[in-house]
Amino acid sequence: MWKVLLVEDETFVRKALKQIIRWEDMGFQVAGEAEDGAEALEFIRNERPDLVISDIVMPVMDGVELLKQTRELGLDSRFVMLTCMNEFEYARQALEYGASGYVLKLSMDESALQNILSKVDKELADRVERKAQIEWRQYQRFYEWNWRNYVNPDTLPRRDEPFESLPASVRSCRLVLCCALHGAEPFSGRDVLESDLLERNPKAFVHEFRKNGHTTVFYWSPDEIRMKTNGDRPFPYAGVYSSPCTVEEVPAVWNQALRQLDERWYSGRTGLAPLNREGLGLSAYVPLPWHLERDIIQSFELMREQQVDMLLDQVWRFMEEHRLPMHLVKETAERIDKICAKIAGLNADHADDLLESRSHGELKLHIRKALERYMTHRIKQSRVLTDHKEINKIIDYIKRNYDQDVTLKAMAKYVAMDESYLSGLFKKKTGETLIQYLHRVRIEQAKFYLEQTDWPLHEIGERVGFANVNYFFKIFKRLTRLTPTDYRNSLKNRS
């Protein structure tokens, strides 16, 4: 609740102000009353109200002077002035000193007060948001460390590190966090403040931590936090909220909230649920076997559509069965998307769809759609090869099966041609012998793997069709004038 001070020398006007609207419903609470500006200034100095509704013409100190002296004290309470028809010059002066507005006493009604309070409520919320943005850097290390609790708890440094970066004044605070998987839809701390999740405290402040279509809102308060609900509630996204906790409990609470959000990511359920703190603690996860991602990329490169689809299903099942953190799932999808787009010679323009997906199933649909587009482009490009149908058939076969044992004899049988005739025809149409062409395709793919992965050299050689690592090195150096090791090192030096 925003604290309000009513300043008016006429008792019946103050009484009318208190009764004309339901203050709490607007998010305000009348915390004090004063009969003149001097009394009001003392209250403002001690209690720091968020809003002062003040008459302009009063004994001892008028409303304009009260506003002026409040600003000289460096206090930022919002002011709304009460004025009569013949006091507009005073009202103008009040606006110059930063008053939020004025209300005519003669036309003062519920609607007029509601309108001005709505305006002030927005100004106060904006002030809290600006303050939180200024303070964000002091808390950033704390949030980033705790984020790593969730993404990769095995790499955490010593436990007390994140708390050292926090201002001493907030280490005794309590806080509530609310995680929402909102995707591309806008979501902020203001949505939490404007909900009926908790009672607002003017001394509290809010921070937001955003990552890949997810936001965690942190509500910090130096005082007790009063929750309005403890059960599930309607919510357009998947969401989890905690009960009030201490700063020291944040690593475990946030980790568990995100893991609970993961459950909704996999099930596709929406709604805002309270955090189940049973068995609360930091838990590791089973990582995705590296060969599964690698096999998708290679199958895509070989244009094996059905195999890509089958492997994608396999990867998605593994991630769901082992409940990998949704952010690692998204990063995996983004990585596959970028590599396959590069293989196809296209731009990876699905990043937003992937990172802002709101469920495991939705993400799979997006990555499958992206890979289908890239594959269609690759197949279309591979069909424009030479002016000879059978040579094109062989080239297409090599591009799909360069990792297999490809020989002139096998290709002659594949297109029902004499070996000698095929050998001469292939060189005439491509400018290379069949084996030279095969080597070039294999080495180009090896260069791609050297650029995009950290796979061992012997494995890259095997993956592109060289059974002997020494032979792989020999052909690679013949075509590039560098060994695979030198080629990979040159890339690192370039970056």
TrEMBL record:
Record-annotated HTH araC/xylS-type domain positions: 392-490
Position of the signal peptide: none
A Pfam short name: HTH_18
Domain called Response regulatory: residue spans: 3-120
Species per Swiss-Prot/TrEMBL record: Paenibacillus cisolokensis
InterPro entries with a match to the protein in the record: CheY-like_superfamily, Homeodomain-like_sf, HptR, HTH_AraC, HTH_AraC-typ_CS, Sig_transdc_resp-reg_receiver
Keyword rRNA processing found: no
Compartments, as annotated in UniProt: Cytoplasm
Residue numbers carrying 4-aspartylphosphate: 55
CDD domains: REC_YesN-like
SUPFAM superfamilies noted in UniProt: CheY-like, Homeodomain-like
Protein's recorded name: AraC family transcriptional regulator
